[in-house]
User: Which sequence fits this backbone?
């Protein structure tokens, strides 16, 4: 399922079950799909338990993705490359496991 920029969960969530999908935990109807999916939101349960480690991990993963894109060695076709999704995923795993992610916080 694809959604456009600025689409809110409230308009998407009711249609998900038709596709065998469900909204992410903590998905509020007035939160944008893209922002939440990219780590821009945290559910009430995470806030209640101060899941700062989850936020730090998300930042680390986001930095790894940005680094793989910037290095441009493993890009999928939609980003102008020829790599498969698996190849991009493997590049991310290697960065994360090797802890060679260059984070700018």
Assistant:
């Amino acid at each position: 399922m694809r959604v456009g920029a600025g689409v809110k969960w409230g308009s998407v969530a009711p249609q998900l079950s038709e596709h065998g999908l469900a909204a992410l935990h903590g998905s509020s109807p007035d939160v944008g799909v893209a922002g939440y999916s990219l780590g821009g939101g945290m559910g009430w349960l995470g806030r209640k338990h101060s899941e700062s480690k989850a936020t730090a991990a998300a930042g680390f993963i986001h930095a790894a993705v940005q680094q793989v894109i910037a290095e441009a060695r493993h890009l999928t076709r939609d980003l102008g490359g020829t790599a498969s999704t698996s190849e991009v995923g493997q590049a991310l795993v290697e960065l994360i496991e090797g802890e060679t992610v260059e984070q700018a916080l």
About this structure: Residues 52-71 form the longest helix (20 residues). The chain has a mean pLDDT of 75.
